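User: My instructor asked us to take a sequence, write out its structure as tokens, and then describe one feature of it. I'm not sure where to start. Here is the sequence I was given:
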Amino acid sequence: MIYHGDCLRGMLDLEDESVNLVCCSPPYNLENVTKHKKIKYNTYKDDKDFDVYIDWLKDIFELIYDKLVDGGRVCINIGDQKNGAVPTHWHITDFMFDIGYDYFTTIIWNKSQISRRTSWGSWLSPSSPSFPTPFEYILVFYKGSRKLLHKGETDLTKEEFIDWSLALWTFTPETKMKKFGHPAMFPEELPKRCIKMFSYIGDTVLDPFMGVGTTCKVAKDLGRKYIGYEIDENYIRTARERLS
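Assistant: Let's start with the prediction itself. The structure tokens for your sequence are:
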């Protein structure tokens, strides 16, 4: 099921201990990073003060904690801000520990995409060089038991398991964002790998920041149940079309 509304309100209606896996990519809070507005959503304003942004995320994942089964996993795709100078992934890890999650692993998503370099910092000087990051993180946490406590059927192939169990994933970003009308999508490959590596067929997958429904579409294709929340009417319309 997918829902048009704020996940903080909508997830209150979810049954506790009903979700096996969360796979999501929160907004990156990039509008206030520079004078150039990097990402413009239709409805959501991606320009919170950083502390407010982190507190907002903490509230969401605190609510999710109760909805996860014992042994449930959370995969969070996130990038750092200001060419790595603002370690967003560290702040998320810090509050996830506060909530009660344990750390499963960190996967580096090598996006194989290095744009034309324009941000050098102090040119040819160690004074204050800049380090653009052509990668993002997939932070993986778990609740309670590191090992899944229920039995199930996997759809992993031997080749996939060998390749994906190395914590450096290399695949290109989404190339059809204009087609779907969303400015910040991850490609289907990302939730595909997370869902197959961290859940069984028939498990329930949640995405609280659903966008145009990529996680839910992949979950459906892989024989999982899915739950998604999205506040933007246009995005959820596109998600419904993709899921149909």
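For the description part of your assignment, you could build on this observation: The domain at 14-114+130-203 is CATH 3.40.50.150 (Rossmann fold). Try explaining in your own words what that tells you about the chain.
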